[in-house]
Design brief:
alpha/beta, 18% strand, seven-stranded mixed β-sheet
């Protein structure tokens, strides 16, 4: 049966987070009353993530694993989206900090036709002060260069129409630049405040280079590309 909803969750060394994440997501999606799938993209994890994904797939029939050699979050996200069969695509992080209970409001934005991509906005973040400050600065700079209309491009809690997949391509930090790519292609991008939880298990995969230095270079490159080759749907 073709799913109406496909939830894609990139996972890299997220042992301890998988079962709770899938349980919460399954409860929310099952309540929609339509077929759905949960794709856990195992991005070459070296801890017990693979075993926990296997246990989740055995417990929740809608859940399945997509296994990759370690390629990074952007590649894992794109691979999962391309493997998805749903008409409506949902994404979230695998660290347990996103809350699936926010999906219904984001789904309403997309399924009502008000927007093509609905993004979460972590207005009350539960991260370290340094990470919050770096993210705030990065988002302000990004909004000056990429007018995608969102405050928090780092939030991976999103819902989008399947049509948006056509404008996505392999690139560094695709997970952060997805709203900009969609907006540049003429899709309507919306945003809603969402919950954010402190990480309970595992370690963040992002240090200074990943949160500021490399994103700054990626941002300038994408701005140049969009300016040189504007895309219209």
């Amino acid at each position: 049966m073709t799913p109406r909803y496909s939830l894609v969750v990139p996972c890299y060394n997220e042992a301890g987070n998988i079962a709770d994440l899938v349980a919460a997501a399954d409860e929310v999606l099952a309540a929609r009353g339509r077929p759905y799938e949960v794709i856990l993209v195992n991005d070459g994890s070296t801890d017990a993530t693979g075993a926990e994904i296997a246990a989740a797939a055995a417990r929740w029939p809608a859940c399945r694993e997509l296994r990759l050699e370690h390629q990074g979050q952007a590649a894992a996200l794109l691979a999962g989206l391309r493997a998805a069969g749903g008409e409506v695509l949902l994404t979230m992080d695998g660290d347990g900090q996103n809350d699936p209970r926010d999906f219904p409001a984001l789904l309403e934005l997309v399924e009502s036709g008000r927007c093509d991509v609905a993004c979460g906005w972590r207005v009350d973040r539960h991260d370290t002060q340094l990470r919050r400050l770096m993210s705030l600065l990065a988002n302000r700079v990004r909004r000056l260069l990429l007018p995608d209309g969102v405050h928090d491009a780092g939030c991976q809690l999103r819902v989008m129409r399947r049509d948006v997949l056509a404008v996505l391509r392999p690139m560094y930090l695709l997970q952060s630049f997805l709203p900009a790519l969609a907006a540049a292609a003429g899709f309507k991008v919306g945003e809603l405040p969402v919950r954010h939880h402190a990480r309970r298990h595992g370690l963040s995969k992002y240090g200074l280079a990943q949160l500021w230095l490399r994103p700054a270079l990626g941002l300038l490159r994408l701005r140049w590309e969009l300016w040189r080759r504007p895309t219209h749907r």
